[in-house]
Design a protein that fits this description.
By secondary structure, this protein is mainly alpha-helical. The protein folds into two domains: about 90 residues, RNA polymerase sigma factor, region 2, helix turn helix motif (Rna Polymerase Sigma Factor, Chain: A), CATH 1.10.1740; about 150 residues, Winged helix-like DNA-binding domain superfamily/Winged helix DNA-binding domain (Arc Repressor Mutant, subunit A), CATH 1.10.10.10. Helix content is about 70%, strand content about 0%. It is built from twelve helices and no strands. The two termini are about 35 Å apart.
């Protein structure tokens, strides 16, 4: 993760006190500058599926609003690290902003849903991950056309594990990653269900084809960028985007069908 410019921890605590207790504008401005690199960091993560007609500057703009919202809502007394709290809100603001642009034609959305449904139905029948050739046959198209559709899907859909992790009853924190804990107390039954959900996703990831599993692991758990993963795997960044798209489509299908055993 990108590290904001170092400021003494005691000074940061004092700035938060001044901002939250006295609404000190200077303290707020210093905190904004200190945490601004978080926005660029999250933009780099979201950009794995950035549509061609959207620039990183658009993400920075949406994310900056998310940062301000996080600062407004953050309670230092809860003992939660601000960076952890802010990243979820920054990403949520970026995704909301992208979705509000509504750049994807209905026909493309329908085609994307067909791909996810085909993967889900096929893998339910097979009891294993389907190959590209099998998915293409299920769709009634060639492997080459399937690869092209996956590439189009990667550039026209916001696909991420964060969507799978979303808690439907917690819309304010609907883009929370596994490493980010909620800052509010949860009912024990809710937490038990959440633990089972995490375990189910871990098992689903383990069943992915090797290259897709590697992309998911390096991107979500090791925090590498698309370019870094491409270099490690010896392929182009666009190929990494394709593998990521296939992986998330499989995982979404597994959760939608309840096929998590």
């Amino acid at each position: 993760m990108a590290n904001p410019k170092k400021i003494d921890a005691n000074k940061i605590d004092a700035l938060w006190r001044d901002y939250k207790t006295f609404q000190d504008k200077h303290a707020r401005d210093v905190l904004i500058r200190h945490y601004a690199p978080l926005v660029k960091y999250v933009a780099g993560r979201v950009a794995i599926n950035l549509p061609k007609n959207v620039e990183e500057g658009d993400l920075i703009g949406y994310g900056s609003l998310g940062l301000l919202d996080a600062m407004e809502r953050f309670d230092p007394q809860r003992g939660v690290k601000f960076e952890t709290y802010a990243i979820a809100r920054i990403r949520g603001a970026m995704i909301d902003g992208l979705r509000s642009m509504d750049w994807v034609p209905v026909s493309v959305r329908h085609r994307n849903r067909r791909i996810e449904e085909a993967i889900r139905n096929l893998e339910n029948r097979l009891g294993r991950s389907a190959t590209d050739a099998e998915v293409a046959e299920e769709l009634g198209i060639t492997v080459e056309e399937y690869e092209k559709r996956i590439q189009d899907m990667a550039s026209s859909a916001i696909l991420s594990l964060e969507d799978i992790w979303a808690r439907p009853e917690d819309p304010e924190n609907s883009f929370r990653t596994p490493e980010i804990r909620d800052d509010r107390a949860r009912d024990p039954l809710d937490e038990a269900e959440w633990t089972l959900r995490k375990e189910a996703l871990a098992k689903a990831i383990a069943r992915l084809p090797e290259r897709e599993r590697l992309v998911v692991t390096l991107y979500y758990y090791e925090g590498l960028t698309v370019k870094e993963i491409a270099k490690i795997m010896g392929v182009s960044p666009s190929r990494i985007s394709q593998l990521h798209t296939k992986a998330v489509a499989r995982l979404r299908g597994a959760f939608a069908s309840g096929n998590l055993d």
